[in-house]
Structure formats: structure tokens, C-alpha cells
Amino acid sequence: MKNMAVIICILTSFVGGGTAISVEVPISEASAECIDCHSATHPGIVNDWQNSRHAKITPKEAMAVEGVARKVSSKTVPENLQNVVVGCAECHTLRPKAHADTFDHNENNIHVVVSPDDCKTCHATERQQYSKNIMAHAYGNLADNKLYQKLEHSILAETKYKNGKINLKPANDATKSETCYYCHGTKLELKGYETRDTEAAGELEFPIIKGWPNQGVGRINLDGSMGSCSACHTRHAFSIEMARKPYTCKECHVGPDVPAFKVYAASKHGNIFSAMNSSWNFKAVPWTVGKDFTAPTCATCHVSLLVNTEEEVVVERTHQMNNRLPWRILGLIYAHAHPQKPNTSIIRNKDGLPLPTDFSGGFATQYLIDKKEMEGRRQTMQAVCLNCHDSSWVSGHWKRFKNTIRETNAKTLTATQIMEDIWQHGWADKKDSFYNEAIERKWSDTWLFYANTIRFASAMGSGGDYGVFSDGRYQLSKSLMELNDWLDLRKQLESASKK
Amino acid sequence: MKNMAVIICILTSFVGGGTAISVEVPISEASAECIDCHSATHPGIVNDWQNSRHAKITPKEAMAVEGVARKVSSKTVPENLQNVVVGCAECHTLRPKAHADTFDHNENNIHVVVSPDDCKTCHATERQQYSKNIMAHAYGNLADNKLYQKLEHSILAETKYKNGKINLKPANDATKSETCYYCHGTKLELKGYETRDTEAAGELEFPIIKGWPNQGVGRINLDGSMGSCSACHTRHAFSIEMARKPYTCKECHVGPDVPAFKVYAASKHGNIFSAMNSSWNFKAVPWTVGKDFTAPTCATCHVSLLVNTEEEVVVERTHQMNNRLPWRILGLIYAHAHPQKPNTSIIRNKDGLPLPTDFSGGFATQYLIDKKEMEGRRQTMQAVCLNCHDSSWVSGHWKRFKNTIRETNAKTLTATQIMEDIWQHGWADKKDSFYNEAIERKWSDTWLFYANTIRFASAMGSGGDYGVFSDGRYQLSKSLMELNDWLDLRKQLESASKK
Amino acid sequence: MKNMAVIICILTSFVGGGTAISVEVPISEASAECIDCHSATHPGIVNDWQNSRHAKITPKEAMAVEGVARKVSSKTVPENLQNVVVGCAECHTLRPKAHADTFDHNENNIHVVVSPDDCKTCHATERQQYSKNIMAHAYGNLADNKLYQKLEHSILAETKYKNGKINLKPANDATKSETCYYCHGTKLELKGYETRDTEAAGELEFPIIKGWPNQGVGRINLDGSMGSCSACHTRHAFSIEMARKPYTCKECHVGPDVPAFKVYAASKHGNIFSAMNSSWNFKAVPWTVGKDFTAPTCATCHVSLLVNTEEEVVVERTHQMNNRLPWRILGLIYAHAHPQKPNTSIIRNKDGLPLPTDFSGGFATQYLIDKKEMEGRRQTMQAVCLNCHDSSWVSGHWKRFKNTIRETNAKTLTATQIMEDIWQHGWADKKDSFYNEAIERKWSDTWLFYANTIRFASAMGSGGDYGVFSDGRYQLSKSLMELNDWLDLRKQLESASKK
Q1: pLDDT value of position A24
Q2: Which of A276, A387, A480 comes nearest B44 by C-beta?
Q3: Where are the beta strands (DSSP E) in A267-416?
């Protein structure tokens, strides 16, 4: 990268009704050079950046902010970055030797994929928190778990039908990248270089990156780091506003396996958000309950630093995401205490399987947080609730939620016991995979879709249709009946065959 | 409660961009005392209220408004309430002897749960209308109907699997409160008192209320009244804007059993709302067609007082909800004329069952509104339509809707006849319950989910995907085939067994 | 129609907060006469129009605009229309002899249904493009295809159950009009006249139009033209803003058969739209990437004229809709190259069936666009993508999409081969219809709902839940297992019967 001599640019940004505001900002010479070409070839990227906070304030100015309003958490920022705004070159030329995809681009050492380890230059605390986030390990937590791999295989595999049998062939990387690993993150790998004929600058050489594009939460980057800040802080706006709105979380949390957005949108909180959010302030740091917003979004409860109207801190910011959550309510046969460590592939239940519970619902306690930690997390979460609800409301809500965890676990136990019956009769094969026969999928529906939807409705909405008729208890109870009906039919058939 | 001596407070409310507007309002001494502590302990509640109309205008000022713009419908309001804004104490200390949960709170007689009978102090007409609303009776309509109780039991019951059989144990109150009764409303009961150590004021005593929290439409309150105004006018903003937007209705009307919001959002009306509502006026009373909004929301057609641009009344406000509706299109095997009375648990069909139709589709006419009443309701509804549609459009729409009622009733009759065949063969047991076997649930899907979705799509959207491929006729016709397929398989099995 | 003498009216329109802006506009005498009565009888219609661009600018002024900002594409507009705004009479009295529904209304020759051939008076290019749009032929493409008619029949038919058999009777026009033809468009026919007693003007005569109301994209109009501009440009606002927002497309593209809106709303693009669109400019023509919007809506990629910030054209406007699309990914057993002609009912596969592929997945190539045309369309689409994404991102995305087409086609081939096995065994009847038995519907689910949802998730979202757990590969693979399970059970039953 060339030198970072500061040049003053007039940045014109268009807001709302089309009013133009011009401000003078110091842009590095290197970034100015990027913008020179890219403002024409990639106007979407350049404009997004121009409207971002990164284009409007230098790290030095940002570091001068004191107390809870401060956004730059790093105690020090390299001298050469302090007095220019955070432009293209500032991120895409950072730590060139660390990135396998660094390449020469008009005499600059550019890397395509900016990683959390780049972002930590200014946002050290968030990066450190995020590394403890189970999401940071989302790639390995799926790819390194043999049982999850079997489920993945049964869903993604290519199929061929021959002699009355469906044969499966492992899915290729293209399929994997746009399915499970779209959200979990792909593993990026440098595969070589290619020359492309560009309109702006003729022939140029670029790296070929396997797994690209991707912005999954647990992406394995080309510097070895895990995660992608742009999963939520969409490039190149890096918008706190967008990350605080529930649509960002919806990208990965909307299907029947994780119906958080659907449940939220139909809850009282979601109603208030939908009806009133156009008058809220999504940019304020810290975020003041009652003043900046009047109902929580996903970020309010799970991520943001909140203060009350007397400027007292209600909860600290976290990018660990699950540290206000005692229970993990999705994805597995039974709800259970959260894993202690973000790498869940190391967990073994009493039968040696990589699962946080056994098939009878027992916890693999040594890998899970203990009651004290659960209690602390509950209290942190409830500190948020208590700004708008009195303690009888909050404790009443929580009692029902815990009841629902117990009750849904009992129902998936019933489902599992019927399934065990079927496996023992030999009418389905447990050994090869738990998920590759029609009746096994009816069983996995019960916990992967219905029990978890019920729990989300309980946790986030205090009830409502997603707990009853919309992938809720109606569907869960029906599935139990259907499992039994299927088993009963095989019994009848067996008895008919014996006659 | 202490005296109500007026003190003048400066109320600062933050709007939109963060601009602060300060106004002087007379707040009662008692409410000022509440705010003293609660603005710190419950900033969300206090801020919501400060931004509400209740915090900005006294009943006396509100009563001075003449004609259709008037919001306070009571002819008289107690003297002591007239000259202070409607603050905490004004509602939470009203009628202390009527409320079982009244308790001493810093020398004030406070009750936790404000009821419609409190609200009627100023809003008498709305309260009176709402008492005729079928929603006001939503608790008893479910809890006191033996057939509905069987459906509820089959959905909510706890399960245990033993010897190839699923055993059911009645669901507990916690489960009931966050499922059916989340929307229908719980029955609140005072269970005693508990002492809690509060941060602000040390040890205090509070009532323990069974069924709390809840804001269901038919909640049985601690003064014996039925309903919860905050179901739609969310506490403590009491916002007409929010109640007029469809997200409020969505809270209970989004699942496949009552897919009103989903159908609306995909309709032409919903499209216009979604695209254009940011420029509409949701606060105006009366609400002027064409000027304040250009497409209806739920409230427009079912609740609001509407005027045209010449200030003529198009329809009167109603909180009865169904008095613009001739047909009840959901929840039961067949669409039918609306019940005469809000208490539907008294209805008996010709077979003595608490249903508005018999299993062959015949109406329990003596409990349902007659043709003249249906005709009147149709006309009231169409008075709304005719502001934007000519009469050929409106009558064309209505003819299709009536055809759809007839046609979907015929299809659920087919489903019921197949089910009767199955019951008669003894392959399912009609006597114990209609809903606790897999095949019975396939039958209930046909009318509880598909026939009603089709009718909503017809009524609210004039058609579209929810009438065809999204829980519509594709799914309904498929279910008929599946019922038949199931029956056919049992016949084959029986015949195989006999050989 | 009476003369068109211009009269100057003061048009008061209410915007946003209720501010009134008064402007003088020349309204024709005829339109002024319409407004006289209709502003009271149809305030919704008149107000919508008053807020529209049609009410604010004359064709002459609109034609004076040069270059890409021009909205009137016709080179000439009749003299008598040039100097008045586009009011009621200007459209509803155009070409009176061409319209079968023209009738005398207060001495004006009015027609109810305004058609694309009326709109082309000013918007000739758009009308011409739209005539090549497959949507323009949506009526005939469904009504004139014998195989589609069988699917339609199996879904819509009225049912009667007798002797263990479901009998089907063809659906009537009312049902058809609010189902398939709600979106596809009805065939309008003049059925006579009726006298109605109107409040404003006593007895008046009006035409009776079969198939009315309707605003489907392929409506057959009373002047013989095909299509309905108001399908997207909702009457009488004719709003470009509304057509550019995704809610308009949602009206027909939301169900599991065409889940475009659902997939979009959960995509990164949809997230950005939902979070940020309140600050975008949806009215600007041309539409500038990065300045007017920062993420695409449906219209951006498929319809709109786009320029970059240097005012260079990125893509030309099109109303053909599919001319940026090489592949057709929905509605049929296999994804395939787009049909050459908008009339798809003429297509025949190698077996003589009106399908673009045969049952083994082979293309009816002579009716489909060739590779060169596909390549051109891909490039046009990617010209949009490249404003915000570099070419490695875009080509990476595209490779995955093509992989998904291949892979999903292979899976629906597996489903079809199992189904063929079932048909050959005689356990379902292929000859009468492919869709009227339970197991056939399980087969049609695989391609009508799941394979296409997966492709939409790939094309529009680069992946995500709609490709996996929400009508995606989980459901597709499960359906293959269930087809096999059903077949296997029949084999067992047959074997049991033979003993």
C-alpha cells in the first residue's frame, strides 16, 4: 500500500428527502485512489461507505469520546490510522502478511476478505467477546460433529433412484456453501490466481477463493480467524441501525428450525416495533430505554448496551450473544443448559455421542454451564425486562417458560420412545443414520421444528399462535399420533402377513 | 390514595428525530408520587405514558371536543378526575373496593390489573360495545365448551409413552396460560400476598395473582369484568395509532387457524398499506377516507369511525367487532351465520352438541343471527368498500365470497363424510374425542386450517395464493385425497388379513 | 364525451404530516364533471388520483422532459390530451368503440375497464414490451393448456362423497375468478346491462361484466387486449413508488409455489430494504444505484431503468420482466430455459405434451431460448449485480445457482422415477390425471413447492433457510423418503395379500 498521506475530501452524502450535506473529511491517499476507480465501477459499495460512520469520523475523534458513548473499544489504535477516516485501504490493506488472499492490485497489497482480526484494530472488545460466541465456531460445530454430518448428508446429498432404492452421493461444495454454510460460514481457501479483463484498468490478476462469497457468522477466514462481522454489520455501511433492527437476525433465524423472527413479529414486542419504530432512534450509543425505543428488538435483549433515562447502565454490551441466555432451546432433541465453550463438537454424552443430552434427555453436564451460571444469565436478561415490567410480570413469564422447557422435553421424549420402539422392531434402521427414513424425519420434525417453535413462542412472546397452531403444540401432538399410527400400521401388517 | 391536589409538571417528550417538546400539564399529586420512584425503576412504562395522549390532556379538555372528533364517550366524568391528566393513580386507584388485588402501596390503594370497568369511566360507549363483543367472552367460550375442551386437551396435554400407547395428563395452568388463553384471556385469581425486597423502597408487600401476566381479549379480571383494553391499546401508550395498524391484530390472528394478517399482507389492500402507510395519519379522529389513508387496515373495516372528505359519517365506530360481519368463517367445521350472543357456550345444535352447526352442516339457527341481521351487517361493511370501489366491484366481490362459503362448506362436508366412514368402520374412535388420533387430525386440518384460510383469502383479498397454494385449495383437496387414501389402505389391510 | 375545454382547478393535496399544498392544474371539463359527483361518492378513488402524478402534470409537460428522466415513452400524444392532466375522462372515455363495455353515463361514453391499449396512448414502449411478457399471456397459458387444466380441476373442483369415492364437478366461474385467475387474470365478457338506483343521480344503467372485478396480469380485456397495468400500478395512484416496492410483487409471488417475496424478505437484500428503505427515493427516474437506494427490490433487478452515480445507464427499463432471466425456475417438474414466446400453450415436448420438458427432464428445445440468448440475459442481470459486488462475488454466486438448478432437477427426477414405479405397479392411475391421488400430490409437492423454493433461495438469497429447512432440501429429501415409504408399504401389503 502506498503512503497514507492525508488528503481532505469533500464528502457529499444524500439523506432522506434528497438533501445534500457536504463535510470535509481526511481520507488517506490510498483510499482516495481506490475511490477514484471504484466510485464508477462499484457505486453501490462506495456510496454505502460514504453514508457510513466510517467515512465521517477518524479513529482519533472516536477515541476522544468518553464513557458509555464510546464506540471504539480498543485502547490504542496504530498512529497511521488515527487521523484518517476508515476508508477502503484502511481495512483491505491491514495485516497483509496475515491474509492468504493478499495480492498486488495497482501496487497496493490488498486482501479481499476483511476479518474480525482486522476489525479488532479498533473494536478489540467486541472481537474478543465474539470469539467466545458459539456463532464464531458455527463452521466447526457443524463440520466436525459426526452426527450433524449425517443429518446434513441426508438433507443435502444428491440422489439417484435405482431398483426401488434412493442412492445418495455427498453434496458438492457449491451446494454446501449455499445451504448450511450460508449461515454457519464457509471455510475459505486460496485456490490460486486468475487474470480478468477489467473495464476500468485492463488485465488484472485476482485471487481465486474457495467458499467465496460468504458472510456466515462462523466463516473461517484466510487469516485463520473465525467469524464475519459483516454478517450483521452489512458491508460497507457497517450500520449499527441495521444490526439493531430484527431484519438482520431474520436472515438466519426465520425458518421452522429457528423461527425467532416469525415469533417476534407476532409478539407484543414485535407489534410495537412494527407500528412505532419509524420514530425511534436506532443510532444512539448508549441506547436509552423508553427514550430511544419503547419495545425491544433482538439486539436490545441479546447484544446492546442499554441505559435508563437516568443514564444508569442496565446491561453491558456483549457480542457473546448467549451470555444473557441460560437455556439453549433449539436444534437438538431436548432443550438444555448452554454449552460452556463455544466449540460444541467436543461435547460427548454418556453414550459417547457428540450431543449435549442423551436420547433419554439426560444432560452431558460436564460440558454445560452450571446452575449458578444459568442463574447469573437469567438475572442479566431480566434486568432488561424490568425496565418495562414489574417483577411479578417478569417472574410469571419466566415460570411459564421453565414449565414449557420441561413440558416440551417430555413430549420429545415421548416421540423418541416411539421411535426407539420402531427401531427395535427393525422397521427403521437406527445404525446407519437417525434421519434418512421417512418415519425418522417425522420424529426429527417433533424436536427440530415443533418443540423449539413452542419454546421460542414462550420465551419471546409469552405465548401466542406459534406455540399452538403454527408449528406448535397442535403439530407436535399430531406428530406423536402419526408416529404411533405408523407403528400401529406396521404391527397390523406384520400380523396380517403371519396369517 | 392520597388527595388529588393538582400539581403542574413540565412534561418533556421526545419525538421522532429527538426534538424535545416541553408542555405544562396538571398531574395529580398521587400520580406525581408514583412517577417519582417509577421513572427510575420502570423508565419504559413511564416514558410510554409520557408520550401518550393520556399524559397530555385532561378529561375536561377532552370532553369539550364536540361531534365526531370526541374521544371521551362518557357523558360525565367524576369531578376529581376532570382537571388532571390521566396518570398512574387515576387508573390504578379507581374503584379500589371492586378489585380483589387492591393492596396498600406506600399508603395508596393500588390495584395491579386495570380493567374495562375502570376504562369505562371515560370510555363508556366503547366498554359497553365491547361487552357485546364475542371476544369479551373468549375465556368462557373456550373453557365452558365441552367439545372445545377436548380439542384443547388433545393439543396441550402432557404425554407419557407406555406399552405402545401415548397417555395424556391434563396440561397445567402455566401451559394453558401461554397457549389458548394467551389470546382468549386467562381467569385471574388472587392467591395471597408476598413480600418482595425492592431496590427503591426496601421490603414491600404485593398481591400474588394466578393467571398473571395476561392481556388476552377475554381476560376475567379481578373485579369480575371481562376483557382487556390493553390487548389492542398497548399499555401504557394506549395508542390509537398502534391499534389501527394491522400488527396489533396480527398478535392473535396470524396462524393457520386465523390467518387474517398473512392474507391481508399479501392482498392489494395490504400492499398499499405496506408501501404507503408512512405518509398516512393514524391519529386523526374521525378518520377520513382518502385523506388520512388510502387503503383499509383491519381497524378501518372492523372498528373505526370513518368519514368521507365531505365529513359525512361513512360508518360509526364499534367495539363489538363482528357487527359488520354476517358470516363467521373460522374455527368450526362449517362457516355459519354469526352467533346472536357473545356467549357461545350456550349454543346447542340439533344433536345437543355445543356447536353452531351439526356434522352435516345444518345451522343451529335459533342461536344465530337471522337473514335480516346478516343483511344489515353486510350493508354496513359495504358502506366502507364503496368509498373506493363502485357497486359492481363490491357486489362482484361479495358474490364470490358467498360462493366460496358454500363451496368450502361442501368440501368440509366431504371430509366429514369420509371421517364418518372411518369412524363407522371402527378404525378411529369417535366417542372419546374427535381430535386425538392421527386421521382425526387430518380431518380437523381441513376445516381448522384450509377451509378457513380459503375464506379469509376470499373475504379480505378477493383471492390470491392463500386461497390456492398456501394452506388453500391445493392443501384442502390433497387432504381429502389423503383421508381417502388412509381409508382405502385400511380396507386393503382388512381384506389381506381375512385371507 | 363532452368537449375537453380546459378549466383550471386548484388541487389541494395532503402530504405526510397533513401539510396542504395547493397547485393550479388544468383539468378537462369532462374530468371536472366526473369529479363533481365522484369526490363525494368515491372519495378514495378521487383522492388517490389527486395525489398521483397523473393529476399534477400534463402530457405536454411530461413530453418536454429529455433523456432517461422521461416517463412518457410515446413519441406523440393526441393534441386534445396534451394540455390537460390525465383525469378520469382522459382514460375512461378513450377509444370508446374499441371497448365492449362502453356505455352512456350522463352523456359521456364511459368504459369501466381501462386497458393497456388505453395506457399506450402515452406509454407506448412499456405496453409493447409488456405484450412480449409471459405475464400478458397468463390467462391463455393456463386456460389453453390441457395438462394445467387437469391440475386446476383437481384443486378447484367441487366435491361430493358417495360410496367411498370423492366425485369431482368442475369449479364455477366465481371460484375460478378468485383462485388461479385472480393472479393470471380473468377473461372479461359483457353480459348485458342493469339499472341501478344510485344515491347521487337516481336510476342509471351500467354494464354487467363477467369476470369483473379483476386486475390479474393477463386479464383479457373488453377491447381484446391482454394484461392489466393496475396489477402493479395500483389504481388510481398509478404509483411508481408502489410498483418498485416488493409488496406489489408479493400479491402474487408469496405462496410456496412462487415464494419470491418470502425469500427476498429473508435475504441480505431484503434485510437492507426493510431496515433502510424509509430513507430511499422510490420516485426518482432514472433510478440511481447507491444514491436513491442501497439494495435492490424486485423491480431493480427485473424491471427498472438504472443509472450509476456518473449517470451512465446500467440497464434499460423493461416491462418484459423475463428478459434478464435465462432460466425459468418454477411451476414445472424441471427448471428449464425460458420459453421463446410468451404464449406457452403452444409448446410440445417430445411426447406431445404441452410441457417445456419431458418427464425425464429433457428440454423441448425448439420452443425455448438458446444458449446465446440465455447468455445475453445473464449478462444483463449481472450488470445490475456488478454495481455493488465485484466479479468474483457475482460469478461465485452464479456458479452455485447453476449447480442448484442441476441438483434440484436431479432430485425431482428421482421423485418422478419413484412415481413412475408407482404408476407402473398400478397403485396410482397416470392416465386420468397426474394430480388427483394423494401420492401424486406428494410427488407434485416436490417440484411445485420444494425444488422451486430451493432455486428461489439460491437465485435471490445466495442460500439461507428457504433452501434448507423452510420448504427446502429438508422437505424435498423427506418427500423422496415418503414416496418410497408409500411404495414400500404397498409392496409389503401386496406380498401379505398373496400369502
Answers
A1: 81
A2: A387
A3: 287-288, 306-307, 313-315, 327-328, 336-337
Q: Find out whether A455 and A400 touch, Cβ atoms under 8 Å.
A: no
For A94, the grid coordinates are: 491491514
Q: How far are the Cα atoms of A210, C460, C481 from residue C397, in angstroms, in the given order?
A: 12, 10, 30
CB C440 within 8 A of CB B478: no
Low-confidence ranges of chain C (pLDDT < 70): 1-6, 8-23, 499
Which top CATH class is C239-498? mainly alpha
The grid cell for B490 is 385400511
| Interchain proximity C391–A157, CB inside 8 Å | no
- For the question of an ipTM over 0.85, the answer is yes
Q: Are B422 and B487 in contact (CB under 8 A)?
A: yes
Beta-carbon count within 10 A of A409 CB:
18
Comparing CB atoms, the residue among A290, A400, A418 nearest residue B178 is A400
Inspect the interface and report whether the beta carbons of C166 and B393 lie closer than 8 Å. no
Question: Minimal Cα–Cα distance from B110 to chain A, Å?
Answer: 14
Residue C12 β-bridge partners: C22
CB contact under 8 A, C39 and B309: yes
Distance from CA of C240 to the nearest CA of B (A): 11
Q: Is B397 on the interface with C (CB under 8 A)?
A: yes
CA distances in angstroms from A378 to A120, A383, B161, B162, listed in the order given: 29, 9, 32, 35
Cα distances from A62 to residues A87, A127, A236, in angstroms, run 15, 18, 18
Place of cell 393513580: B89
* Residues in contact with B253: Cβ distance below 8 Å, sequence separation at least 6, in sequence order: B259, B260, B261, B298
Q: Is the domain covering A320-498 a CATH 1.20.850.10 domain?
A: yes
B320 — pLDDT class (breaks 50, 70, 90): very high
Neighbours of A, requiring at least 3 CB pairs below 8 Å, are B, C
Q: Report residue C100 as a C-alpha cell.
A: 365492449
Per 3-state DSSP, chain B is made up of helix, strand and coil in percentages (nearest 5) of: 45, 15, 40
- Cell 376529581 belongs to B80
CA distance B96 to chain C (A): 42
Domain boundaries, chain B: 1-56, 133-231
Q: How many CB pairs under 8 A join A and B?
A: 198
Q: What are the residues whose beta carbons fall under 8 Å from the beta carbon of B345, sequence distance 6 or more?
A: B137, B140, B141, B144, B145, B354
From chain B, pick out residues whose CB is under 8 angstroms from the CB of C234: 268, 271-272
Mean pLDDT value of segment B213-226:
98
Q: Are B177 and B168 in contact (CB under 8 A)?
A: no
Q: Give dist(CA C273, CA C292) in Å, integer.
A: 12
Distance from CA of B161 to the nearest CA of C (A): 25
Q: What does pTM read for this prediction?
A: 0.96
Whether B156 has its CB under 8 Å from any CB of chain A: the answer is yes
